[in-house]
Amino acid sequence: MESTKVLDAKGLACPMPIVKTKKEMDALSSGEVLEIHATDKGAKNDLAAWAQSGGHELLKDEEENGVYKFWLKKG
């Protein structure tokens, strides 16, 4: 999936993946996609809930070798 920007949040514990995601999303234009890589198991629920509450769309998520990848489309 094509993304506008990639955020490396590997090794960060809650709430830092969300904090960094918010900062990056603020810099994007509506409709652009942020790809996030995280290792925190809680990131899946946290990012899904955060995206919904902020009017963004979680396009896809997957896990590969302990790294969780998310694609968020800015609302």
Model description:
By secondary structure, the chain is of the alpha+beta class. The chain has one domain: Translation Initiation Factor IF3. It has helices at 16-27, 43-53; strands spanning 5-9, 33-38, 57-64, 67-73. A four-stranded mixed β-sheet has the order 1-2-4-3, with helices on one face. α1 links the parallel β1 and β2 (33-38). It starts with a strand and ends with a strand. The mean pLDDT is 96.
Can you summarize this structure?
The protein has 2 helices and 4 strands, in the order E-H-E-H-E-E. The chain is of the alpha+beta class.
Could you list some keywords that capture this structure?
alpha+beta; four-stranded mixed beta sheet; globular
Write the layout of secondary structure elements.
Blueprint: E1 5-9, H1 16-27, E2 33-38, H2 43-53, E3 57-64, E4 67-73
Parallel strand pairs: 1-2
Antiparallel strand pairs: 2-4, 3-4
Organism: Sutcliffiella cohnii
Family: Belongs to the sulfur carrier protein TusA family.
Domain UPF0033: 7-31
CATH architecture: 2-Layer Sandwich
| Individual helix count | 2
| Overall number of structural domains | 1
Helix share of residues?
25-40%
User: Topology as H/E string?
Assistant: EHEHEE
CATH fold call:
Translation Initiation Factor IF3
Rg, rounded, reads: 11 Å
- Unreliable spans: none
β content, as a range? 25-35%
Biggest β-sheet description: 4 strands, mixed
| First-residue to last-residue Cα separation | 18 Å
CATH superfamily: TusA-like domain
Q: Estimate the mean pLDDT confidence.
A: 96
Shape from CA axes? Answer: globular
Family: Belongs to the sulfur carrier protein TusA family.
Pfam families: TusA
Protein name: UPF0033 domain-containing protein
Domain UPF0033: 7-31
